[in-house]
Design goal:
Helix content is 47%, strand content 13%. The protein has four domains: 131 residues, Rossmann fold, CATH 3.40.50.2300; 171 residues, P-loop containing nucleotide triphosphate hydrolases (Rossmann fold, 3-Layer(aba) Sandwich), CATH 3.40.50.300; 76 residues, Helicase, Ruva Protein, domain 3 (Orthogonal Bundle); 41 residues, Homeodomain-like (Arc Repressor Mutant, subunit A). The N and C termini lie far apart (68 Å). It is α/β, with parallel strands linked by helices.
Length: 444
């Protein structure tokens, strides 16, 4: 039942209004002061509040701010015995649904109540959607217990509490956008837009128009003024995926936006100011890209105020059983199939795989198995044919060759780091990709 609060110190008028609303089928609670109304607002969930402007202990105009802080927020209709245009304007500015004069507008109250309740219902639907979205992208829903993964996750949690630019690194398919969404939804901009764009998906000119928008007539086919993604993300977060693919001349324009918040649309002459948080991601080694002149050094340092390297699935194979069970349950519900958890043989096969596609590949493999499986558990027979492709033959090494010495040294470092390849690559002073290539080459 819809619950309405009436705050008015005129007892007869308050009782009359309450009786009218109860006859309409609403549940009504009454209060005579701001303090009493505040206490009731904390105890109950009201869809609508009818509040007098002048109360013994305060003003209804000020009380509006308390109602606005409540989630989900109730709509408020202000009542006054002496209407004035300045008060009415101030009421609407403070967030009131409407402002009416007692006695003169009695016939308007019930229709106005229903209109206000329609808006309140919409507010609640939006609130419920935002809450579900926040829960979907919560850090608690990102699965993984491997130390190297938890370290990245902890850094991301800290990033969420600030408003600095974040650069996410890692191989394709490791979940960089999942991290970006979690950072956004745990931060102060959670109620604003999260806008994502893949910089590798557009040619240079189209990417510029997508990011910054354009005026009508700026180029052939520009028939009307169009907002860019920076404007769409105003007050929110813009996620620039595969930032390493952005052309150098466009990087200069992006740098200016990051430094000043200002940019000019294609075909325009006036500057537009935006307030946008940037989270960028790449699978490339941007430091190497800088050395080779393909990425601006100043842009790199502006983007990488906080850098988070997300480990590959190969570095967190102990997480595979947890992830496999989660995806098996998820896709069973998605395709309306019985939930079949992975068998021991199935998990063993997963842990022996190299996972070049990381989490994205694992999800695809599990979904395929859920669809094909007829037994009580997911079995290795449902895995893709190329899943068991024989690895490239390992070359025989002479005991006196440099390669044999290199293989032995890499094995010692991996033993020292307990199998942590990221730390091993750091100690060896080589790239992580190079380390994996040598592990495969030497059959370590």
């Amino acid at each position: 039942m819809t619950h309405i609060l009436i705050i008015d110190d005129e007892v007869k008028l308050r009782n009359l209004l309450a009786r009218i609303l109860r006859l309409e089928g609403f549940e009504v609670t009454e209060a005579s002061t701001c303090r009493e109304g505040h206490k009731l607002l904390q105890q109950h969930d009201f869809e609508l509040v009818l509040c007098d402007v002048k109360l013994p202990d305060g003003s209804g105009l000020d009380w509006l701010k308390e109602a606005a802080a409540k989630t989900p927020r109730p709509e408020v209709i202000l009542l006054t015995a002496y209407g004035s245009i300045p008060d009415g304007v101030q009421a609407i500015r403070n967030g009131a649904f409407d402002y009416i004069v007692k006695g003169d507008d009695n016939s308007k109250i019930i229709p106005l109540v229903y209109k206000a309740l329609e808006k309140a219902a919409l507010n609640r639907r939006v609130y419920a959607l935002e809450k579900r979205l926040g829960e979907k992208y919560a850090f608690e829903n990102i699965l993984g217990t491997a130390p190297v993964f938890r370290k990245a996750l902890d850094t991301a949690r800290r990033a969420a509490s600030s408003d600095v630019s974040v650069l996410l690194g890692g191989e394709t398919g490791t979940g960089k956008e999942v991290f970006a969404q979690a950072i956004h939804h745990a931060g102060t901009r959670r109620n604003q837009a999260f806008v994502a764009v893949n910089c590798s998906a557009f040619p240079r000119d189209l990417l510029e128009s997508q990011l910054f928008g354009y005026r009508a007539g700026a180029f052939t086919g520009a028939l009307k003024d169009t907002r860019g993604l920076f404007e769409e993300a105003h007050k929110g977060t813009l996620f620039l995926d595969e930032i390493g693919e952005m052309p150098p001349d466009l990087q200069a324009k992006l740098l200016r936006v990051l430094e000043t918040g200002d940019f000019i649309k294609l075909g325009d002459t006036r500057s537009i100011h935006v307030d946008v948080r940037i989270i960028a991601a790449t699978h490339r080694n941007l430091k190497k890209e800088m050395e080779e002149g393909r990425f601006r050094e100043d842009l790199y340092y502006r983007l990488s105020v906080l850098t988070i390297l997300i480990p590959s699935l190969r570095e967190r194979k102990n997480d595979i059983p947890l992830l496999a069970e989660h995806f098996a349950t998820l896709y069973a519900h998605k395709v309306n199939a019985p939930v079949r958890l992975p068998s021991e043989a199935y998990l063993q096969a997963l842990q022996q795989h190299g996972w070049p596609g990381n989490i994205r590949e694992l999800k695809n493999v599990i979904e395929r198995s859920v669809i094909l499986e007829n037994g009580t558990e997911l079995s290795p027979e449902t895995l893709p044919f190329d899943f068991y492709s024989d690895p490239a033959p390992q070359k025989e090494l002479s005991a006196f060759s440099m390669a044999a010495a290199e293989k032995l040294h890499i094995q010692k470092i991996l033993n020292y780091t307990g199998g942590n390849k990221t730390e091993a690559a750091r100690l060896l002073q080589i790239g992580l990709t190079t380390l994996y290539r040598k592990i495969e080459e030497y059959g370590i």
